């Protein structure tokens, strides 16, 4: 039944896409984040769902109406350059087979984001994209969050929709993305217009936020605590309702403190411990990456971490040896795999997106269009949380970041049109 239901949803989205082409984009995002092909047991699991939708988006792109305010910008060209460079690194890949396998999905993540802004032209488009991201992401938090309430969670436990250790099935990744969804939920809580039942929508979004926080805590991932701490600080310091957010955060901390297990507290206490094997293993890989790039400035292409061998002397006098350990950082992942040119492109995309959100949030919007300022502000918070938490998770080529890049460009286009009225 699960496979049949998800197949029907997919077919419905595909049919609606022929009526409004931006729905193809929403459908692709749903497939990318929710991953129905990994959750269903039959039917849709054997269909190349992403490929079909990707082709539909690509063909629809050439049929979009002309709009003077929707055009290629610096972000577009840097994205395309980044995709070209990622492909070029395959010619000197240290581990060619695995490198090609990762390039196959990483290239799609980056290049698809270059098309998205051309489809997002109105408030409805922006809001629909946000709803799609939130619903697709929170779907992974719903079972996880409720299981945390029942069992207390645990490190490495497959309590979500995906039972394997990749994508949103990986604890640290799920912990970070669940926190990133909170600012999006807050924006929709204040400004959403697509759901006609306002009170029901607010109750649902409040539940989404609670489940996202429970999921982040329940993974026992230290990345989640860092992300939650930063988001709390941003909400208190940079939002107009400082007192309200201060009270909410204080209540949240009290609730977490009352339900946190000794195992959770013990794991969080290892943040900053220079003798803890997992954390220091990451540091060892990061140091290896710097040494590798010093002699291979173009990077080693995808999956190059598989060749790393490193020893590190710990503070207690013991020696830690790591072999083939993943980067566990978006920055070292992009640096090690795509070298200096790649990390420059990645950081430029982050900087330009940050500037786009900041610029739109500070512009005086026309009467009745103030929503765009809040949308930019909350997406800026999301970007900050991702960039901070991503320092400890290797998801530099997964699509969530590139959707934020697309939002930055789309909202710049829309803001420019508003200012020209």
Description:
The chain has 421 residues and is an all-alpha fold. The protein has three domains: 1-64, no CATH class; 69-119 and 272-421, no CATH class; 121-269, no CATH class. The chain contains 16 helices and two strands. Strands 1-2 form a two-stranded antiparallel ribbon. A hairpin with a 5-residue loop joins strand 1 and strand 2 (319-323). The longest helix has 33 residues, at 330-362. The relative contact order is 0.12.
Record keyword descriptors for this entry.
421 residues; mainly alpha; two-stranded antiparallel ribbon; 69% helix; globular
Mean pLDDT: 88
Which parts are unreliable, with pLDDT below 50 for 5 consecutive residues or more? none
Bulk shape: globular
Domain count: the total is 3
How many distinct helices?
16
How does the major sheet shape up? Answer: 2 strands, antiparallel
CA(first)-CA(last) distance? 51 Å
List the helices and strands and how they pair.
Layout (H helix, E strand, L loop, with lengths): L1 H16 L4 H13 L1 H4 L9 H13 L12 H15 L7 H24 L3 H29 L19 H21 L6 H21 L3 H17 L3 H18 L2 H7 L8 H19 L13 E5 L5 E5 L6 H33 L8 H19 L9 H22 L1
Antiparallel strand pairs: 1-2
Helix pairs in contact: 1-2, 2-4, 2-7, 4-6, 5-6, 5-14, 6-16, 7-8, 7-9, 8-9, 8-10, 8-15, 10-11, 10-15, 13-14, 14-15, 14-16, 15-16
């Amino acid at each position: 039944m699960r496979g049949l239901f998800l197949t029907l949803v997919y077919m419905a989205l595909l049919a609606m896409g022929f009526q409004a082409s931006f729905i193809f984009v929403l459908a692709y995002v749903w497939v990318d984040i929710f991953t129905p092909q990994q959750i269903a047991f039959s039917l849709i699991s054997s269909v190349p769902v992403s490929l079909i939708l990707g082709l539909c988006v690509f063909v629809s792109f050439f049929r979009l109406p002309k709009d003077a305010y929707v055009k290629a910008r610096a972000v577009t060209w840097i994205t395309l350059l980044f995709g070209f460079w990622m492909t070029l690194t395959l010619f000197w890949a240290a581990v060619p087979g695995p490198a090609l396998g990762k390039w196959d999905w990483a290239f799609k993540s980056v290049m698809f984001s270059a098309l998205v802004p051309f489809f997002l032209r109105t408030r409805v488009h922006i809001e629909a994209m946000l709803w799609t991201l939130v619903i697709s992401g929170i779907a992974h938090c719903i079972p996880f969050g409720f299981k945390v309430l029942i069992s207390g969670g645990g490190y490495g436990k497959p309590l979500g929709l995906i039972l394997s250790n990749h994508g949103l099935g990986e604890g640290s990744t799920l912990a970070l993305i669940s926190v990133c969804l909170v600012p999006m939920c807050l924006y929709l809580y204040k400004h959403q217009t697509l759901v006609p039942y306002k009170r029901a929508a607010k109750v649902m979004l409040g539940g989404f936020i609670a489940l996202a926080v429970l999921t982040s805590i329940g993974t026992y991932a230290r990345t989640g605590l860092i992300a939650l701490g930063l988001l709390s600080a941003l909400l208190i310091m940079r939002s107009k309702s400082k007192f309200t957010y201060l009270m909410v955060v204080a209540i949240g901390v009290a609730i977490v403190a009352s339900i946190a297990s000794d195992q959770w507290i013990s794991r969080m206490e290892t943040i900053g411990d220079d003798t803890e094997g997992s954390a220091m293993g990451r540091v060892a890989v990061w140091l290896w990456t710097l040494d590798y790039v010093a002699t291979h400035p173009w990077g080693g292409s995808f999956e190059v971490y598989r060749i790393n061998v490193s020893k590190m002397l710990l503070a207690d006098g013991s020696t830690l040896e790591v072999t083939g350990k993943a980067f566990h950082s978006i920055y070292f992942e992009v640096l090690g795999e795509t070298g200096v040119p790649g990390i420059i492109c990645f950081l430029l995309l982050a900087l330009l997106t940050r500037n786009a959100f900041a610029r739109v949030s500070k512009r005086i919007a026309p009467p009745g269009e103030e929503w765009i300022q809040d949308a930019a502000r909350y997406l800026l918070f999301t970007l900050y949380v991702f960039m901070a938490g991503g320092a400890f998770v290797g998801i530099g080529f997964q699509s969530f970041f590139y959707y934020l890049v697309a939002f930055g460009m789309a909202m710049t286009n829309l803001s420019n049109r508003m200012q020209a009225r």
